[in-house]
Amino acid sequence: MKKEKPFDALQWFNESHSDGASLNLKELLYYKSKAHLLSLRPRGKVKSAQAGQYLAPHKGRGMEFAEVRQYQYGDDIRAIDWRVTARTGETHTKLFQEEKERPVFVFCDLSASMLFGSQLLLKSVLAAHLSSLVAWSACARGDRVGGVVFNDQHHHELKPMARDRGVLALAHQLCSLHQQALESRDAATNGHRFNENLKRLVHLAKPGSLIYLVSDFTALDEDSFKLLERATRHNEVIACMITDPFERQLPHYGQAIEATDGGNKWTLPLMDQQFREQFSHHAERFFEQQIALLRRSGMTLQHYDASLPIELQLVRG
Asked: Over the stretch 46-58, which tens digit does the pLDDT of each residue have?
């Protein structure tokens, strides 16, 4: 068996044009060449108020098998189902449904809790990388790209646009709002604006859309759940939970350290094993509660770790 080559962080930073903390357009363009790593093909038929479903309503030579019916004059003889024909004694033909483009929405959370990272990347940077990868993958499929990008002070809504225009519009907003978040991380805020921006997304995304929610979901509550239920009713929704290893398990260290979220400050006695075990227990309970809320709303849940590049996590599966 071929031994896996160890991950070289310095080489990756150089290739991806990233420094792990700030965000620039070049590192988001890097994911255009990685678009093949993420499949956005529909997992099922999504109900739509306009077209009835994501698959086109007309029958033709497409990718999705629809049904078998009796042969009619003018049908393509290449589509004859010989098995059914032999069984019934009457000629039957296969019908297919063709796929069409659908809007892909990216909901990217760049709030204060995302501006944290203990190893490779800030969670916010990883979230931007994943958002960019989703957008480039949608572009490669011919889907339009839109979304909502927000931090604790500002937000930006993007209506779906085709081709590179949609991806670049999203990338510019990711860079702009991330820089704003970094510059104002110590400023007083009116609290987390997760639900406020989730409402905007639900209003923006028309039925039949694919929605990627990219966040740490620390602000998730019952109000969020109601909004998520509305979103999943007529759309395919994928929740991408971004975490950092430090949030689940504290490392051993010879002395206490000071930690802050920009407002509150804590002293963490990392030399105390009992304290570290209690922290891990509480952290696990918190994550289990958030995960339960996400799953209860009927969406697909994925987990991403800020200590590794997105492409490496997708390749390893």
From this structure: 443 333 334 443 3
* Contact call for residues 117 and 306 (beta carbons, < 8 A): yes
Residues 92, 86 contacting (CB under 8 angstroms)? no
Q: Distance (Å, rounded) from C-alpha 135 to C-alpha 106? A: 8
Instruction: Give CA–CA dist 231/205, Å, rounded.
Output: 8
- Tell whether 279 is covered by a domain: yes
Number of structural domains (the chain) is 2
Q: Is the dihedral of CA 61, 66, 72, 78 positive or negative?
A: positive
Tracing tokens 């990868």 back to the chain, one arrives at 133
Contact 283, 109 (CB under 8 A): no
The answer to which of 137-146, 232-241, 250-259 has the lowest mean pLDDT is 250-259
Q: Is 94 helix (H, G, I), strand (E, B) or coil?
A: strand
In a domain, 136, yes or no: yes
Q: Are residues 205 and 223 in the same domain?
A: yes
Residues 171, 265, single domain; the answer is yes
Pairwise CA distance, residues 248 & 261, whole Å: 16
The CATH number of residue 124's host domain is: 3.40.50.410
Inside any domain, residue 232: yes
In terms of Cβ atoms closer than 10 Å to its own Cβ (0-12, 13-18, 19+), residue 1 is exposed
268 and 288 share one domain: yes
| Mean pLDDT, residues 108-122 | 95
pLDDT, one tens digit per residue, over 178-235 is 999 999 887 656 667 999 999 999 999 999 999 999 999 999 999 999 999 999 999 9
Residue 119: pLDDT band with limits 50, 70, 90:
very high
Give the structural domain span for 201.
9-46+102-316
Q: How far apart are CA 118 and CA 306, in angstroms?
A: 8
Q: How far is CA 57 from CA 48, 71, 156, 208, in A?
A: 11, 20, 34, 13
Least confident of 161-165, 166-170, 209-213, 249-253: 249-253
